[in-house]
Amino acid sequence: MFAVDPVSGAVTVLVPLDRDQQQFYNFTVVATGVSNGTNLSASAIVVVTVLYQSPPLFSQNVTSVSIPETAPAGSYVATVNATSTGIGLNNSVVVFNITGGDPYSLFRVDQTGLVTTARSLVDQTGSYSLVSSPYVQSVREDAALGSVLLRFVAFDNDTGTAGQIASYTLIPGSCCSSGPFPFALNASSGALLLASHLDYGVQHLYSFEVTATDRGIVPLSTDVNATIVVLDVNNNPPIFTQPYYVSYVPEDLPPGQTILQVTTTDADGPANSIVVYSLLSGTDVFVINATSGVLLSNAVFDREVVDSYNITVQAFNPGADGVNLSSTVVVTVIIEDVNDNAPQFTSSSYSLTLRAPIASGTVLVQVNATDPDPRLNGTVRYGLTDPTNVFAIDLISGIVTLAANITVGSNYSILVLAYDLGSPPMSNSTFLNVRVPAPNLPVIRQSTGPELHHSARDIPSQSDFDGCHGLLPTGAGIRCREVSIRTA
Questions:
Q1: Is 62 in contact with 129 (CB distance < 8 Å)?
Q2: d(Cα 438, Cα 416) in Å, to the nearest integer?
Q3: 115 contacts 85 by C-beta, under 8 angstroms
Q4: In terms of C-beta density within 10 A (0-12 exposed, 13-18 middle, 19 or more buried), how is residue 232 classed?
Q5: What tens digit of pLDDT does each residue of 350-392 get?
Q6: H or E element: which one contains 440?
Q7: First CA to last CA across the chain, in angstroms?
Q8: Against a cut of 0.85, is the pTM above it?
């Protein structure tokens, strides 16, 4: 209802006031400050009294009098009375003025409403009708074309044709540079008609004059001022200032932060241009200030799960005349990546067993790591830590090769690193375990056969060497046991 400027302290009214609904408003204004490190505050109660203003009303709309044309200057003509029903300072003061119908300035009126002649009427033909109050009419902006808005009536106290009204003429004011004057006057009847559509947003007040002319040999005329007040109708929906909205936000934006602000315009008057903003979608992730249109985050974003949101914002316009209008706009929120994911190896560790000899440059294994972030934040590079300089890894492919001779009987444990190209980069590591065992050698073991012994024969037979063929020279003159060869 009211607002206080935090700097100047000025209190302003946000919506139209209606005394018929509420005559008084009480509220408290608090002023705060700091002095020598101490917080200070003071408050005041503000009482707002709604005053009622209305134009003064004449006791008679038309006062007709007759005076001789020989009446001297200062002669009494009539007394007009008017009262004001307004409440408040100066609202009951009435000031009288002659605003039309006296083209020759023959009359005057004082502040008591006393009308007298200002000079002699001799040689002035005819009589005059003074309009006691100007014509003022309120018209809804959606009034139908051809509607009769006002009817002007002039009186002439002359007799015969000199007392007949010949015509009424409309004299438009300088109000309508944006289009034609929207009213037409019937020259015979004095009826004012609506000739073109009204639009409160374009023009809400029209002032003009109407002249009535009699049929005298020397025609006389009188003028009157008229005002048409256009009443606002809620016939314009709120219009967003952009056809759509786009905002880029980082995925690590915390809840409660401003995304953007939507704004609207409304060609209707203040009472019919109030807008309330709301979300028709995306309410689980965003909230919007109903008054300001500021869109706020209301959840934690994860670009790897959802990389953009299309939400619909509604501007609702509750009309003072009971007509409610609304419009919508789409807001696209694009979540920008933050390097919040480290590369992950597809295996927790890698193990190899190598048999010497192996040539330098031999491909041993390819390690692989993935990163869900996009672009550079998800581009993976590889490295390893090998104090022996025996192994090498390709930076891009992760292929591990032999860079030098390996030592038989050794075990190697190599730290393999995967990192991304984000800023700052994130990394992860795993181990490559390499085992190089000694070569397998034959091992002689005894069988369960007979023990070695001397033969009675002087010359051994070939059967004596069955089972050890190739192990002893032929004709060695000894027997051998059966042997078998196993590998370690």
A1: yes
A2: 26
A3: no
A4: buried
A5: 999 998 888 889 999 999 999 998 889 999 999 999 999 999 9
A6: none
A7: 96
A8: no
